[in-house]
């Protein structure tokens, strides 16, 4: 026992020493891992000195004398704050996630390689124009200058045992392709195909979305719509999550007499944020806004003359083709001019901790064969191939500096004409008092055909693309008579033009509320008023359909619930119990509709289909009938709601890619949030969730998509009102105070100005770092 006690004593001393040493190392590492923000830093690759001023939120304003040095410094600060995020995006763009995380992500690598993200980036890199290559090389040199300094790496590198390789031009191009994939319509086509394979074409036809006749388009002035039975119902415009809001208001409606622009792009809520705030200055150009770590320039923001904002255009950019095999030779497929061989590509996926995997896939004249990866989209011996706009070379890298330097509408038009990918609605305002809108991206010219909802014959040639529509045919408006433009992923125009863009816009509710707020204003609007619009949580969808939920409650004998829903003002506040009942009812109704259509609880049904059913108050397939299904949904919803406030059922979290590992999350505080949140999938202040989950207290709606940034600018006073905010902070390093310092203001409301017109007398940065060229 004495020996045992002595051994335990020695072990205790050893553990104490190790723990103390570990604590000391962690304390050192926490400080050392936060990048240098003050003083001078000598770097190779600069032409002239660059000054990087950071404000209290860590937002850098880069002041260079020339474009090369500006891009070099932007790459440097991106690497300072977001090196691990860039590393992760590099592995996504190259479909090499398995090298980092092992066999659990092999399926993702397979998909990305067959879909063509690395292939498209490589093709773009091979055909890059000389000017774009110079710009990308300047940016990459800045990234690599920071890596070469040998600073302590972010903790994710240590956790996964990884080291950063030099950044390349192709890495930046791959990020553009990843963003285009994130907004592609591919998954909609696949889900529809699976539904047809399971249900048959007649029954699956009920899953075709319908853009309502009362929904306005972006180009048309809003018109008076028939007032439904309940006067508060709003029946114009619309959007959903994983898209965006952007609108611009003419000076005739603002207090300053100049336009006000607002933008909030809805992307996955991640920490660090997908976007990064910065100001970029040269001797001749100045702009501020959102950038994407890993890529140069600013994607949305403003300069001293114009402002621009983006929303997803909902373009149908991906067609599926049925490729018929040659009946005499299965290694070939039929084309309009005879049979051609499948091109077989052999690729190797390196897997951490396991042997490499050999991936074989086939290519056709349209693109890769996707049915080898996606179950349930092909039948018989046919295969399904994909054509995607992202596989084409683009000129977006020329568009971004053109936007940064634009001085007016003509410059803006020229810049958007080069904004090939991803497809975007782009709103515009300038200091001269003009407002406008152009759809950017490339619209496939399908001849006499409209975008197909399902796979189409590939062997006939009748569905082949004939290039793209000329840019002068894109939806455009300049200084519209109504004095505003609202884009929220609603239909761009009435008639044939928009029919060639897509067949699947989102239900018109979020833009309805934006239009209502603009047109009902009793006084000229300020930037502060417009920011409050971004935070609005009155749900036009709930106001339109709450009487249906109330009727269902009455069917079940719950008069108090019915009365509460009828009196509810439609605001999805954290405190509202009626909001909880309504959203649980809609979730349960969707489940009832899925069981009714498919015969079980599995099967795809987009939210727009539920809205179609609510709009028609009927079920477009043989079933038990709408009234019985809605009553069944309400019978489930009432006990599940249990008088809970909406904030108790609805939470929002910005998740770190490694935050699902509980021990890491506790140690490094990787995730941010999981806090009560207002809003819904159809409020201006959007909060998008997937299917509700259940915990001990009832359903849980966990928001995973929302405003990835907010931007408001008054063109009379670009430095004195409005501003920007991110959901989290500038830094991707968990030890930095800038990792989460913007979260609360993002959640509850607030913006910070990032000025463009600073002078040495008025500028008071929190930190100043000078990059000095090495001799």
Label the structural class: alpha+beta
Residue windows where pLDDT falls under 50 for at least 5 positions: 1-23, 221-241
> What's the main sheet like?
11 strands, mixed
Helix content: 25-40%
Mean pLDDT: 87
Strand order of the largest sheet: 1-29-2-3-6-7-8-9-17-18-20
Please give the number of β-strands: 29
Number of helices: 23
Task: Kindly estimate the percentage of residues that lie in beta strands according to DSSP.
Answer: 15-25%
Termini separation: 69 Å
Principal-axes geometry comes out as: globular
What radius of gyration results from the CA coordinates? 27 Å
List the quaternary state of the chains. single chain
What does this protein structure show overall?
- There is one protein chain.
- The strands form five sheets. The protein has an eleven-stranded mixed sheet with strand order 1-29-2-3-6-7-8-9-17-18-20, covered by helices on one side. Strands 4, 5, 21, 22, 23, 24, 25, 26, 27 and 28 form a ten-stranded mixed sheet that branches.
- Strand 8 (300-303) and strand 9 form a beta hairpin.
- The chain has 23 helices and 29 strands.
- The protein is of the alpha+beta class.
- The relative contact order is 0.15.
């Amino acid at each position: 026992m004495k020996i045992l006690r002595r051994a335990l004593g020695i072990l205790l001393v050893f553990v104490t020493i190790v723990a103390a040493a570990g604590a000391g190392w962690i304390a050192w590492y926490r400080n050392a891992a936060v990048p240098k923000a003050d003083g001078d830093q000598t770097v190779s690759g600069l032409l002239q000195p660059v000054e990087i001023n950071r404000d209290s939120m860590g937002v850098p304003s880069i002041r260079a004398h020339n474009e090369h040095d500006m891009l070099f410094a932007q790459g440097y600060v991106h690497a300072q704050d977001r090196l691990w995020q860039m590393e992760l995006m590099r592995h996504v763009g190259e479909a090499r996630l398995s090298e980092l995380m092992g066999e659990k992500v092999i399926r993702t690598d397979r998909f990305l390689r067959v879909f063509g993200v690395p292939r498209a980036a490589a093709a773009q890199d091979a055909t890059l124009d000389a000017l774009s290559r110079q710009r990308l090389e300047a940016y990459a040199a800045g990234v690599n200058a920071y890596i070469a300094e040998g600073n302590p790496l972010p903790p994710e590198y240590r956790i996964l045992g990884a080291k950063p390789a030099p950044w390349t031009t192709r890495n930046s191009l791959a990020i553009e392709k990843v963003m285009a994939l994130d907004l592609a319509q591919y998954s909609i086509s696949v889900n529809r195909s699976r539904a047809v394979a399971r249900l048959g074409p007649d029954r699956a036809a009920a899953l075709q979305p319908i853009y309502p006749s009362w929904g306005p388009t972006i180009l048309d002035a809003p018109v008076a719509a028939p007032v439904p039975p309940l006067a508060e119902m709003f029946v114009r415009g619309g959007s959903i999550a994983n898209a965006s809001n952007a609108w611009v208001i003419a000076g005739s409606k603002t207090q300053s007499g100049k336009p006000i622009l607002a933008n909030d792009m809805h992307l996955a809520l991640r920490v660090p944020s997908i976007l990064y705030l910065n100001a970029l200055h040269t001797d001749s150009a100045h702009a501020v806004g959102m950038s994407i770590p890993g890529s140069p320039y600013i994607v949305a923001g403003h300069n001293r003359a114009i402002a621009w904002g983006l929303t997803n255009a909902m373009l149908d950019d991906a067609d599926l083709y049925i490729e018929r095999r040659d009946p005499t030779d299965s290694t070939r497929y039929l084309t309009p001019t005879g049979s051609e061989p499948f091109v077989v590509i052999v690729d190797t996926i390196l897997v951490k901790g396991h042997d490499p995997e050999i991936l074989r896939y086939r290519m056709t004249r349209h693109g890769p064969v996707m049915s080898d990866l996606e179950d349930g989209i092909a039948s018989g011996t046919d295969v399904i191939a994909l054509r995607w706009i992202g596989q084409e070379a683009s000129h977006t890298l020329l568009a971004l500096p053109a936007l940064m330097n634009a001085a007016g509408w003509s410059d803006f038009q020229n810049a958007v004409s080069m904004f090939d990918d991803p497809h975007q609605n782009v709103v515009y305002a300038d200091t001269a008092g003009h407002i406008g809108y152009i759809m950017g991206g490339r619209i496939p010219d399908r001849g006499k055909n409209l975008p197909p909802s399902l796979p189409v014959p590939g062997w006939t040639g009748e569905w082949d693309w004939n290039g793209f529509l000329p840019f002068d045919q894109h939806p455009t408006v300049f200084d519209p008579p109504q004095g505003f433009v609202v884009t929220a992923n609603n239909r761009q125009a009435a008639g044939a033009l928009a029919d060639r863009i897509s067949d699947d816009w989102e239900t018109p509710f979020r833009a309805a509320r934006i239009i209502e707020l603009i047109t009902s204003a009793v006084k000229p609007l300020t930037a502060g008023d417009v920011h409050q619009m971004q935070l609005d949580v009155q749900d036009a969808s709930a106001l339109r359909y709450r009487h249906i939920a109330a009727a269902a409650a009455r069917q079940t004998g719950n008069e108090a619930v019915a009365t509460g829903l009828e009196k509810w003002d439609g605001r999805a506040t954290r405190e509202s119990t009626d909001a909880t009942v309504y959203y649980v009812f809609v979730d349960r109704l969707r489940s009832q509709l899925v069981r009714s259509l498919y015969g079980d609880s599995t099967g795809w049904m987009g939210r727009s289909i539920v809205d179609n059913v609510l709009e028609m108050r009927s079920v477009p397939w043989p079933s038990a009938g709408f009234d019985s299904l809605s009553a069944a949904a309400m019978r489930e919803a009432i006990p599940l709601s249990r008088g809970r406030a909406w904030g108790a059922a609805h939470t929002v979290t910005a998740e770190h890619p490694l935050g699902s590992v509980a021990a890491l999350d506790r140690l490094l505080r990787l995730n941010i949030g999981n806090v009560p949140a207002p809003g819904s999938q159809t409020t201006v202040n959007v909060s998008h969730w997937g299917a509700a989950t259940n915990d001990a207290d009832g359903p849980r709606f966990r928001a995973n998509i929302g405003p990835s940034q907010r931007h408001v600018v008054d063109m009379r006073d670009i430095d004195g009102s409005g501003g920007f905010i991110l959901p989290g902070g500038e830094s991707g390093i968990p030890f930095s105070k800038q990792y989460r310092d913007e979260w609360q203001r993002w959640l509850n409301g607030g913006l910070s100005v990032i000025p463009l017109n600073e002078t040495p007398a008025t500028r008071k940065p929190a930190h100043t770092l000078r990059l000095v060229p090495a001799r």
